Every structure is written in C-alpha cells, then in structure tokens.
Amino acid sequence: MAAPKAPVLGKKKEVSLETSVFAADVKPHLVHETVRAELNAARAGTKSTKSRGLVAGGRAKPWRQKGTGRARAGTSRAPHWTGGGVAFAPTMRSFEVKVNRKARRAALRGALSEHAKKGTLALVSGDSFSEPSTKQAVSLLGDWEGKQPTLVVATEEEEALVKSFRNLDRVVVTVPAELEVASVVWARSLLVSEAALPLVLARAGSEEDSEVEKTS
User: Fold this and answer.
1) Which of 138, 133, 153 is nearest to 6 (CA)?
2) I need a labelling partner for 53 at 20 to 30 A (CA). Which of 79, 94, 114, 175 fits?
3) Contacts of 90 (CB under 8 A, 6+ apart)
4) Is residue 116 a contact partner of residue 155, using CB atoms and an 8 Å limit?
C-alpha cells in the first residue's frame, strides 16, 4: 500500500505519512465506543436533590391518625408535601465508560486515517509564524480550502502558531497530549504542525505496537 501524503501549507511540497497510523483500518464500533466514552467523561454529573431521607424536620407525626378530618400523614418530608423530599431524587454520579487503551488507539488511528483518505489532513510548519498573525492563518486556510470546522494540533512551544489560529471562528486548537477521537471526528479538516506530528504518532501508536502488547 502506498503511503498517504499530506500537503505542507505555505510550502509547495507534500510529506509522506506513517502508513500504520494514517492508513489503518477504520473500525466504526471502536470509534463510536471511544467518542461516547470521551463525551461521557466531559459530563459533570453534579446534579443532585434531596430525597425524603435528607430533608430536615418531619420526625414527628404532623397530627394524630384519626378524628381530624384530614388525610393521615406520618411525616412532612413526603414528596407530595411542600418542602418535602424528591421522589427518586437524582444524585451526583459519574458517567465514565471504560475503554481499553488498545481500543482507544485503534479508534484514533481510524479517525486520522479517514482524514488522510479524504484529503482533509494537512501539515503546517511552526517556522512559518515568526510572530502571531491571525491574518496569515486565515490566508493559509484560504489557500488550502479546507472545510470548517477545523482542528489544529500544535505543541505548546509553538506559541506564535497557536495564537495565530486560536481566535479564528470554528477553529479549535489543541495539543497532542489532549487530542481526542471525538475532536478528530467532529472536525471536517485537520491541521497538524510538523513538530506535533511525532507526538500524534506516539499517541495513536501503531498496529505493530498492539501486536507487541498482546504477546508481551
């Protein structure tokens, strides 16, 4: 299989990409499982109300059982009372879903391969930005004609590049250590800096690495 290639914006050249990462098999069930887990991990899960066991007061019977003409009541903490507890009260919880590391890496490889296959993946050199320039970033994206939304992956050291892209509408900038499958799937075009490319490869791993893990 021929190695996929990606253009380098601002320079008239193409770079060959790692076949094991950018030409991997796309496994939709793993991508779906990983995206679901990442979105669940982003949920706060802090919604909470008091059940009848947590509401203050209501220890004594409000009135005697018979002879008052009113319905019998044992506590003022019942859900149908004003100020009472909530029936089936929601409590703080975690929405975390566990996904194995090899499955996460396979999903990331599949998402990256899909961009490489469609031609929506490009590289950019951090040396192209001697100082922050949003105008230059807009020009690069315009010449590339990449579809939005766009995900830009750059290292923290490439401060000028990061500042150039982060103020653009429908452009999200992230670092390789925080690159998620959900972001890659969400983006219609992916822009990776040349310095960040080796870190992305390390995060995605390779199918050979997975085979080594199985045998070890």
Assistant:
1) 153
2) 94
3) 47, 48, 49
4) no
Sign of dihedral through CA atoms 183, 184, 186, 192? positive
- CA proximity to 30, closest of 154, 204, 197: 204
Q: Which CATH number applies to 5-25+101-215: 3.40.1370.10, 3.90.180.10, 3.40.50.1010, 3.40.50.720?
A: 3.40.1370.10
Q: What is the pLDDT of residues 25-82, one digit of tens each?
A: 999 999 999 999 999 999 999 999 999 999 999 889 999 999 999 999 999 999 999 9
Q: Is 31 left (phi over 0), alpha (psi -120 to 50) or beta?
A: alpha
Find the length of the chain.
216
Q: What is the pTM of this model?
A: 0.82
